[in-house]
Amino acid sequence: DSGVTQTPKHLITATGQRVTLRCSPRSGDLSVYWYQQSLDQGLQFLIQYYNGEERAKGNILERFSAQQFPDLHSELNLSSLELGDSALYFCASSVDELGHYEQYFGPGTRLTVT
Amino acid sequence: DAKTTQPNSMESNEEEPVHLPCNHSTISGTDYIHWYRQLPSQGPEYVIHGLTSNVNNRMASLAIAEDRKSSTLILHRATLRDAAVYYCILRDVSYGNAGNMLTFGGGTRLMVKP
């Protein structure tokens, strides 16, 4: 158990819909990262927040957004969903901002868009 | 981040040592070598990291070539639980660099035979 929790575990929704994925980092970790894992693209970094502020951005679509709240939990919002958004979404946390320390990954949320 | 090259798959017998190679010929002086693994149906898990010297921890050892253009992750006694995809990742954590995210390649799928 990494100490990072993600809800829900599974999500099935239809094209065009909007969903919210939630992540609680390990106690004491200030950075939260979101990654997407699909069969064709592998594991890809989406976005990082550190202590409530956006810190780094990867290939995140404009239809996707995220935020980190004062209690440090984070939410990833996916809107206007397409079939290609079906993937595993992982959240990770680390204690620092710049990547000197390892990242701890949650169990993931499996999103299926039908 | 600089690119790494790993074999797509490797096979090992249970209770034997496993050497997982990684080539990173374009590594820079500020790149740390990180290894993560992903067990089936789980999020990635940190294994080990190093800069220049060989490193040991409870999970594995990391042997880094003198010129740093390659490294080897060593599992001293493979168990069935070690069957996973192993990712070798370079991270530049020099000041001012947004190298905090992890850039995953294809990794090496390790199969362990009983």
Can you tell me about this structure?
Chain A is an all-beta fold and 114 residues long. Helix content of chain A is 0%, strand content 53%. Chain A has no helices and 11 strands. In chain A, strands 2, 4, 5, 6, 9, 10 and 11 form a 7-stranded mixed beta sheet that branches. A 4-stranded antiparallel beta sheet of chain A has the order 1-3-8-7, with no helix packed on it. Chain A is globular and about 40 Å long. Chain B is an all-beta fold. Helix content of chain B is 0%, strand content 46%. Chain B is built from no helices and 9 strands. The model of chain B has no long low-confidence stretch (mean pLDDT 92).
Instruction: Evaluate the radius of gyration of chain A.
Output: 13 Å
Model regions low in confidence, pLDDT < 50 over at least 5 residues of chain B: none
Helix/strand/pairing category of chain A: mainly beta
Structural class based on helices, strands and sheet pairing of chain B: mainly beta
Largest sheet composition of chain A = 7 strands, mixed
Give a count of the beta strands of chain A, DSSP E runs of length 2 or more.
11
Mean pLDDT of chain A: 94
Helix-strand string of chain A: EEEEEEEEEEE
Strand percentage of chain B: over 45%
Strand content of chain A: over 45%
What's the oligomerization state? heterodimer
Distance between the termini of chain A: 31 Å
Main pleated-sheet profile of chain B: 5 strands, mixed
Shape of chain A: globular
Largest interface: A-B, 27 and 22 residues
| Apparent shape of chain B | globular
The DSSP helix count of chain A reads 0
What percent of the residues of chain B sit in helical stretches (DSSP H or I)?
Answer: under 10%
User: How many strands of chain B?
Assistant: 9
What's the arrangement of secondary structure elements?
The complex is a heterodimer of chains A (114) and B (114).
Chain A (H helix, E strand, L loop, with lengths): L4 E3 L2 E4 L5 E6 L6 E8 L3 E9 L2 E5 L6 E5 L5 E5 L8 E8 L9 E2 L3 E5 L1
Parallel strand pairs in A: 2-11
Antiparallel strand pairs in A: 1-3, 3-8, 4-5, 4-9, 5-6, 7-8, 9-10, 9-11
Chain B lengths: L8 E5 L4 E6 L7 E8 L6 E6 L4 E2 L4 E4 L5 E6 L8 E9 L15 E6 L1
Parallel strand pairs in B: 1-9
Antiparallel strand pairs in B: 2-7, 3-4, 3-8, 5-6, 6-7, 8-9
